[in-house]
Amino acid sequence: MEISLHILDIMHNSIVAGAALVELTVIEDTKKDILSFTIKDNGKGMSKEMVEAVYSPFTTGRTTRKVGLGIPLLKQAAEAADGSIKITSELGVGTELFAQFTHSHIDRQPLGDMAGTMHQLITAFEDIDFLYRHSINGKEFLVDTREIKNILGGVSLKENEVSLWLLNYLTEGEAEISD
Amino acid sequence: MKSLAELEAIRQKMASNVSMRKDDHATRVVIGMATCGIAAGARPVMSAFIEEIGKRNLEHVSVVQTGCIGVCRLEPIVEIVNPDGEKVTYVKMTPEKARQVVAEHLVNGRPINEYTIGAAE
Lengths: 179, 121
What we know:
CATH superfamily of chain B: Glutaredoxin
Number of strands of chain A: 6
Number of domains of chain A: 1
Structural class of chain B: alpha+beta
Low-confidence stretches of chain A: none
CATH class of chain A: Alpha Beta
Distance between the termini of chain A: 24 Å
Strand content of chain A: 25-35%
Number of helices of chain B: 5
CATH topology of chain A: Heat Shock Protein 90
Largest sheet of chain A: 6 strands, mixed
Structural class of chain A: alpha+beta
Radius of gyration of chain A: 16 Å
Strand order of the largest sheet of chain B: 2-1-3-4
Oligomer: heterodimer
């Protein structure tokens, strides 16, 4: 597994929860030896009981089967790298998930392909806005789909040329902060 | 470096020929982008399709994502659906095969049988 696949999975939860805006912040700080991410949405939120239960693999919102492994697997991955996860939520307001890993830990999963992850989400869920921030030792790359959609007017993000621009924009932005 | 200014230029170009686009008559390239597909390499396959279709300026082809198609062992899976709804399913795709499929199937109209699910099964 890669951390970016956990991120894809958790952001999908936000989308299913009816979020209009999903904010993802990834912070890498090698001095503090931390890799963390926060996913904040304005979806329907969860009750206190649900927030407590959601760490269990036998809690799921879906009806197709009785297990949901997204959060348990993320928790396991974070704990394997001396980290932790924390979920806070309020019904009708939204949910925030914070996950932290020890950057240099031998068992920390690689972050993986963030450009591909964001491209996939942004083009597949055009009606949802994403605010993505990734910082590595203070260098930040930011993408706000509200700004992009504003420039595009009515032109779809699914248009091949736009989709290709977005993929290159994300790939180059990621490369720029990682040197 | 790609910039937002470049996006503005793309929009202006698009807006001028938007009336010519009838997406209901488009051929769709449907890529399985669930975690099984991604783990098998669907992302580079999708990038190859987007780039190659862009390079050849194929206006009536759209690349779309789907979830798990149900045959994870044959991922990355790509379905090409023509405007009549006729479907060809390609399995175990690679970026190289993707570029060949664009040239042979999408441009020349000849599906590559050896990459299809029929040949794999």
